[in-house]
Amino acid sequence: MEEQVSNKQVLAAGLIAGNPKQTDMYLQTSTITLQLPPEASNAVLVKNLYLSCDPYMRGTKTTFGTRLFYSFSPHSPIIGYGVCEVLDSKHPNFKKGDLVWGVTQWEEYSIITTMTDSLFEIEHTDVSLSYYTGLLGMPGMTAYAGFYEVGVPKKGDYVFISSAFGAVGQLVGQLAKLMGCYVVGSAGSKDKVEILKNKFGFDGAFNYKEEKDLNATLKRYFPKGIDIYFDNVGGDMFEAALLNMRRRGRIAVAGMISQYDLDEPQGIKNLVNIIYKQIKIEAFTVYDYYHLYPKFLDTVLPYIREGKITYVEDIAEGLENGPAALEAMFTGRSAGKQVVLVARA
Amino acid sequence: MEEQVSNKQVLAAGLIAGNPKQTDMYLQTSTITLQLPPEASNAVLVKNLYLSCDPYMRGTKTTFGTRLFYSFSPHSPIIGYGVCEVLDSKHPNFKKGDLVWGVTQWEEYSIITTMTDSLFEIEHTDVSLSYYTGLLGMPGMTAYAGFYEVGVPKKGDYVFISSAFGAVGQLVGQLAKLMGCYVVGSAGSKDKVEILKNKFGFDGAFNYKEEKDLNATLKRYFPKGIDIYFDNVGGDMFEAALLNMRRRGRIAVAGMISQYDLDEPQGIKNLVNIIYKQIKIEAFTVYDYYHLYPKFLDTVLPYIREGKITYVEDIAEGLENGPAALEAMFTGRSAGKQVVLVARA
């Protein structure tokens, strides 16, 4: 019999109320054999290096309560995106030693069986590996697809981004600036607002918590109106944006996080404005755009190497700090894209 | 001095409350010289043959009240689409004897000066000239642009059309059937519902006034959901449609007539559903698509000649019956696309 090693894991305790808290998760150490059994066809055994904390992980409300990630079952490891090293493979596309990113589990070692389609081989290692949880991973691809494919930007467009300091928003803003757009973002703290302006070169940024009248705020930042609104929050910000869109403006909806916890969703009163200005509102998911991933890398990698695109990460060290990191991301306390470092490559 | 002839006119009395009524208009007879003065460069003098009654003519609420058509000024002839014969022209694109359709005024003879850009020459006269107020005019082009360009249909799509018996809806439904879609429409009377099913070949149709729970109604007609919703009404129907859209469904918004008279617009509570299904909502205006008019004619004219597309009109005879016809269109009493016959060609 093969030698077994210990495998630290973060498990989901049960259904959650609202955003996940540390107490919705618990640590456990099990054991694992670092070799796939012969019958594990198409499976991949990986060592998890970085795990990603993302807003979608809170899932949506069901009749029974809110789940932590959509494929969650209680007392099993949390599922999420990560960067991994392949230790063993029975899958034709992967071999020992490969670095991959995709859907894995919150533990030191994982056997990936059903989600191997979602694994991308990492070919470029001259940039930080952790970027494949964010800038070069699912959030980055979300930014790229939402901005270019849904937003259909052109030079000089007026672009507004909510949650602009988030894992997605950071890149949307920088792509928009590189295209020659005027870019304003909202975030939830003074520090984040400063980084948006000083590090990412946004033309403007504001702390939405300090604004009493979001319509007036947007009018101040966009006296000529908004061409593209990249929406991550919905609700009051969406209402204000609807009042400030320009003719044939586009609203790319990546999420409406303000709405998920409400017992009854907020009625959107300004929707009729889309008629007067011929507005497009399009909700999208990155899953429909992964075929563009090679094109995305061709676009973004050179910018990273030239220092024209940068990224702010908040890396928690150690899987045992994962639950706190996930809670921090949901409460807006993370000082950048929240990552958990499990092991160095 | 040239001989003058009498020119019967329909004038707007003032601002209106809600939908226009006969009493918001009045008749007057003035005189006109049937020759353009030498200084009228780029002007066209026309004899109006058919005038069109269209929903957009009620305009939108202003601080002062609702206007009858956007460029209305009190005690001037109502502005609207029509089919006309050119009697005199100082415009390089038009000559005496031409038949045109476009924006004219509600009177027997009009001098068109500023809106000549909106005039289209009628080249095909083997079909009913009145069709250029509807099927082959602005409403037809609205149907074509909304269905093909905004709706992006494919064979087998499930298509729902509100105001399906209207000047636009009639064509949307027939284009969708010709493409191999499953088509259901809503209308406001039993007679209209019968025509949708029996004359236009809709797979289903219902009288929305008899439905208590529109969500249940749509679930009944679309057990697998809706791919394209062609929206003319907004409000409760829009809410119900949002609950029944399929993944990546498209809502083409031509109008939201249920919303224009409300003091405060109805809050749309189901908007968050666009996230779960990646829905696109796009409001559009025909003015952005007139460059496709030749392509539109190439598509629709053969279908008309082959009897594969038909059209139901309600033609009021005589300009003096125009105000009653316009009121009938707004109250849903018209038995087809409402047209006013002013003079035969």
Automatic annotation (TrEMBL), chains A, B:
This is Enoyl reductase (ER) domain-containing protein. It holds the Pfam family ADH_zinc_N. One of its GO terms (molecular function) is oxidoreductase activity. It comes from Flemingia macrophylla. Keywords: Oxidoreductase. InterPro entries: ADH-like_C, ADH_N_2, ER, GroES-like_sf, MDR_fam, NAD(P)-bd_dom_sf. Residues 65-340 form the Enoyl reductase (ER) domain. CDD domains: double_bond_reductase_like.
